[in-house]
Amino acid sequence: MRLQFFPKTISGMIRWYSVFIIGISLIFLTVMLIVFTKSAILQSAQQDLKDQVKSHQTVIAEWFKERQFDVKFLAESDSVRSGNPERIWQMLKIFDETHTDISAAAWVDANGIIINSRNASTSKIDVSDREYFIQGQAGNPHVTKVIIGRSSGKPVVLFSYPVTLKDNSFDGVIILASRLTAIDEMVRNLRFGSTGETYIVNREGYMLTESRFLDELKQSGRVENSAIIEIKTSTKILEAALNGKQPQGAYRDYRGKKVIGASQWVNDGRWLVISEIDYSEVMAPIYSFMLTACAGAALALLILIPFSLRLVRSISIPLKNLDVIARQMTKGIFSCDCADAGIDSPPEEVERLIQGFCAMQNKVESTVQELQRSAITDQLTQLPNRRYLMKEGSRLLNIAIRAGQPCSIMILDIDRFKNINDTYGHNVGDIVLRQMSKTFQEIIRTSDIVARYGGEEFVVVAPGSDIESGRILAERLRKGIEDRTFNTDEHPLTCTISIGVAHYNTDIRFGVDIYEDTLARADEALYAAKNAGRNRVMLAEEQHETSEGRE
User: How far apart are CA 148 and CA 145, in angstroms?
Assistant: First the structure.
């Protein structure tokens, strides 16, 4: 027996169990905390990367400035401006030996012949076609892209500055060559964390510094000895940088790993400095918190399960019984007893639901019948629609074929119906369609079917009619429309129709069965009637014979 103080309504039962259900709120809050914490960690890491790469940009930019200052210092020194090759060579040799980040210092004379600081007598190469020499002739300093040095055969970056003698005449250029390994040594010191790295790529995506994960790249067979100029990236961060943006969220790096990163352009936009760190390393602190939070949520759910089951059972059992009844009703069985809830003293809302369901049960059958009728009826003309026509017309034709009886099909189309809609509007056109449909029903036999085929087209299926009887019926329909005035209240109109008539033929020319073939031949005859001037009846046999005669 239910306790007097125990609530009878669903709302009362929910309030009764609210103390326990509060645990769900705790789970929700835990999930939200995890989500927001994860978002905060990700945003913080991305901001750190932006700040970090910006500082890296400053370091690399300073390195470029120092090299440009060095080459300018050499070019403007008295030894170089003296024009004495021996003094120039000695000056470059001293500079080369005291600067480890420079792979070579050289002088290109006014004729474009390069004299290397390491061997002034033999290292003579013609570089008069190089951009830096051409710029030097124009009096401009220059920093090259990554090029392959003609003397070293290695990828290098050249810093050049024009040399002028004391009389201001051009005497060649001083160049400082820095191999990418020198830049790589500088960038190597910018690595962070266990997976964080800073590297440089050019605008085409080729790596200009060594990968922190060189061993991994070697094992995968992507490189043999070095990633420099061997690995070409096409990652989201490069694409974003080329569009003047920073990447949003995580993406896949050149290894295919999920990372977050930031970038900055250096060297007048020629190189892109990228700082990245694995997404898993950034998210590592939250994983233990997520595990603890999920364990707490699972414990809360275990506590709530017995109480939840009791509440759900008081509602689900009556609803299951109603579901069984509803399934029976979908099969057309409306006599089942819906008054049994399945449990004693269900909640008041459930009792009212059962009562309402029982009341609706009495209305469902008539509603279903009405829906079935609507599904096969054209709403405008109240004639059978195309769906009904295709099913019932095929059935009648097959009956006639099996009984050895004739059966004709005709397709009717209103002549120039578009002009009525364009001139008087679609409301007038709808009135004409309704009145014409009524005229069709008045003329055809009770055993015939007239249906709206679509738009201004109608189909008549006349079982028991051979081709001649079909022609006579089609003429009656044509004449009946021709003699009638439509929409007499506002715009008296006269209309005509064209009709194509076909009798079934076991020699199928169109479609997959006799019914589709007969419809297609009637439609072909209709178009022949249209082409012959409209307001006429054309038999499929006549149309076919006419076509053969023309051939």
Answer: 10
Give whole-number Cα distances, 33 to 22, 43, 293, 295, 297, in Å. Answer: 17, 15, 9, 15, 13
SS3 362: helix
Q: Are 497 and 477 in contact (CB under 8 A)?
A: yes
At position 342, the amino acid (one-letter code) is G
Residue-wise pLDDT tens digits, 83-139: 888 888 888 888 888 887 787 888 888 888 887 655 555 456 788 888 888 989 999
In terms of pTM, does the model score above 0.90? no
Residue of 30 and 272 predicted with greater confidence: 272
The per-residue pLDDT of the chain, averaged, comes to 82
Judge whether residue 457 has pLDDT over 90.
yes
Both structure tokens of 353: 């639901």
In the predicted structure, residue 301 carries a pLDDT above the cut 70: no
Burial (CB count <10 Å: 0-12, 13-18, 19+), residue 1 = exposed
DSSP state, residue 314? H
Per-residue DSSP letter, 56: H
Token digits for 526? 């209709």
Tell me whether strands 457-463 and 485-486 are parallel, antiparallel or unpaired: unpaired
| Tokens linked to 548 | 């053969």
Query: To 10 degrees, the CA torsion angle through 89, 90, 96, 99?
Result: -140
Give the count of alpha carbons within 13 A of 109, CB side only.
16
Distance of alpha carbon 386 from alpha carbon 376, whole angstroms: 8
Are residues 454 and 380 in contact, defined by beta-carbon separation less than 8 angstroms? no
Is the pLDDT assigned to residue 447 strictly greater than 70?
Answer: yes
Q: In the sheet that 407-414 helps form, which strands lie side by side, from edge to edge?
A: 449-454, 457-463, 407-414, 497-503, 537-539
For 515, counting Cβ atoms within 10 Å of its Cβ (0-12 exposed, 13-18 middle, 19+ buried), the class is buried
